[in-house]
Write a structure and sequence with these properties.
11 helices; 302 residues; single chain; alpha/beta; globular
Length: 302
């Protein structure tokens, strides 16, 4: 089977039921961990082609079952990350659960220590994994991340938790507009053509997918004090116009991790890796080039 860019792709499931896709035929694996919404295909239009062209074997995976009727383009549009805001709720959808799912994937695929790339909730999960299973990782890129809550996140938490408990949901048109404003940069919003295309995607997602408030996450807590134990190379990427994971909070994460670096992309909101894919991919590939090569014949971790 061929995927975006003509790269070979293989699909499968882990023993725990996680659906994954292997892209390309390279022998240098990199695992991409998506944010809330949880569909691995969100990486396929931009990041997967760039990585496979660079000779990487790219692993993407879904957090959980895909909603019925959600097509590729529709579910890619379901990228609202408002649930990143650490709302009270089930641990089943939080960073710890996603970290455990990622470890299970690494084990099931028998991967040697390799780079992980996480966005938003995916970045929070990678941070937790680095505290418990760093021996499985050769380096990590954390995009749109944070190590603690803030006033705006707590306000959004209260709003979405209240909506989830009340069982209410706004009309799809309203939900799409809110997600548009929360996730994109003023530069994109000022481009009427681009804004219209994004609005269509968000509205389709609102019509066919679940609301961001349907699965509120558990509280994040205050994690920077723990990050001093992370032993692998880390690059934190902030997006200058991100209102859901403000860039200064990402800079805090980088400052708390020994030897970590921080870079920031201008004119990019929470979905900066999709708004400015060329700039993001350049940062990603440059970071991967700094890591020690993954030896495909290296002993696997226990």
């Amino acid at each position: 089977m061929r995927g975006p860019g003509g790269a070979a792709r293989t699909t499968g499931r882990t023993p725990g039921g996680t659906a994954y896709t292997l892209h390309g035929t390279g022998d240098r694996p990199v695992v991409l961990v998506a944010g809330a919404g949880g569909a691995g295909r969100i990486w396929e239009h931009h990041q997967v082609p760039a990585l496979t062209a660079a000779g990487r074997l790219v692993v993407t995976f879904d957090h959980g079952p895909e909603p019925a009727g959600a097509g590729a383009d529709t579910w890619e549009g379901h990228t609202s990350e408002a649930v990143d805001s650490e709302a009270d709720g089930s641990e089943a959808y939080g960073p710890l659960a996603l970290a455990a799912r990622t470890v299970e994937l690494l084990t099931a695929l028998d991967l040697p220590p390799c780079p992980l790339v996480g966005h938003s909730l995916g970045a929070l999960a990678v941070q937790e994994l680095l505290l418990t299973d760093a021996h499985r990782v050769s380096g990590a890129l954390l995009a749109a991340t944070r190590g603690r809550s803030d006033v705006l996140a707590e306000a959004l938490t209260r709003a979405e938790t209240a909506a989830a408990r009340a069982g209410t949901r706004p009309p799809p048109e309203y939900e799409a507009f809110v997600r548009l404003v929360l996730n994109l940069s003023p530069r994109t919003l000022a481009d009427e053509g681009a804004a219209a295309e994004w609005l269509d995607l968000f509205e389709l997602a609102a019509l066919t997918g679940e609301s961001a408030a349907d699965r509120p996450l558990p509280p994040l807590g205050h994690r920077p004090a723990d990050f001093g134990r992370i032993p692998v190379p880390v690059l934190v990427v902030g997006f200058a116009d991100d209102v859901l994971a403000p860039a200064p909070l990402g800079r805090e994460v980088a400052s708390a991790i020994p030897g970590a670096r921080y870079t920031e992309l201008a004119d990019a909101g929470h979905l900066g890796f999709l708004e400015r894919p060329g700039a993001f991919n350049t940062v990603l590939l440059d970071f991967l080039a700094t890591l020690a090569p993954t030896d495909p014949g290296a002993p696997r971790v226990p």
